[in-house]
Structure prediction request, 202 residues.
Amino acid sequence: MKQVYRSKAAYVMAWVWLVFVALNVVDLIVRFSGKSSLVALAVLAALTALVYAVALRPATVLTEEGLVGRNPFRTTFLPWASIEDVSVSHSINVRHGDDQVLRLWTPMSSARERAKAQRRGTPAKQRGRFATEPVLSKGEQAAAEAFAGKTHADWVGDQIRDRAESAKRRDEQAGPARVTWSYDSIAVLAVALVLVIVAIVA
Prediction:
């Protein structure tokens, strides 16, 4: 089963930005005023290319065959059995091959999110003599225990580690990593660059 993890906040903000850009592009085309409109279009294109590469494209994808790390300009595929270790700090770091490390762009854990996770893992203090706590179902209790003290990045790191260990127990082949360039990000940047050049030359 394919699972895709990314920064929800960055993803939502990127789509908000794209809607904003679309409205502005329509307005600039309708009220086209020469060079100033071209400059505005070039600025919007450059910022949109950056937003696409940094916020929309990055994703961590778990497939049956292995881990796919989509970073802004490269995509790395790692067979599960080739993964040697997974550590989580600000980002998820996957060690593979000859001490090579794949740093996943998403999900990341900020200091604020980690502090919140630590508070969530600490038992709540009882207040008052007759204080009562809401009764959680078994499913809710299991979820609370699984996420206690963990950020989203920690949880995804655990999923990667579990799949890698399962693959090794099944004696799967530890194939080499496959790295490819992100042609979509390069194409978006190329279009933005062309618009910037047109705005400068016109």
In short: The mean pLDDT is 87. The chain is about 50% helix and 20% strand.
